[in-house]
Amino acid sequence: MFGVVLVSQVVGMTIALVIAIAIGESAPLPADLAWSAAGAVAGGVGITALYHGLSVGRMGVVAPITAVIAALIPVGVGILVEGVPPWLVLVGIALAIAAVVLVSRVTDDAPPGDGSRESGFRFALIGGIGIGTFSVCLAQISDGHTFWPLAIIRGLEGVLLAGVIVLTRSAWRAPRGLLPAMTGVGVLDMAGNVFFLLAVQAGALAVAAVLSSLYPVTTVILATIVLHERVTRSHAAGIALAAVAVGCIAFGSTA
Question: Where are the domains of the chain?
């Protein structure tokens, strides 16, 4: 787990640095540096708590709670700072959050009341707050600055993760055969951050946050196509709700 995250951070930082230098992006402002540092701490804590919660807790509890809290925090901040969006967008946001809950549900083999495995609620709570706060921090980056702040965030997250590995003496080396896949994770993760940052600079934080929170839908669809996993009724309902939610947000934003 730690190896995948660490490699993805290094890959993301390298990509951001190369692009920032290649396009001649101006140096980040002092405020951007502060928000980048805060985002790195929040994101590092959030991801670590989420992964730990998934490993020691019940995925059916950790996954949806983390996803919903991570969406609600930036949505709430966006509405407070930027104002209430049109009613159709609000409907889309509500449907999107419901979709995240449905597609994040997984089968839990632990019987009800089984005390041998904790729920992981507190890690889900910390993970959701951390990831949601990361999104808010990212939205504060000034217009025209994208790749330098992201490089700083990835670098600081890598340092924080390395510190956790050293302090906890956790195993982090992954098989070399997984390096291409881990590199792909870093590339896609950076691409997601770039497009999210561009989205909040061009539009509303609440809309960008809730649309980005629909990532579990893509995971479920890819798992079905690539891994031939079974789509449950909950997943199917979530995918359908996500499609309706995107339509509502798109039409409501252009009305």
Answer: 2-106+118-254
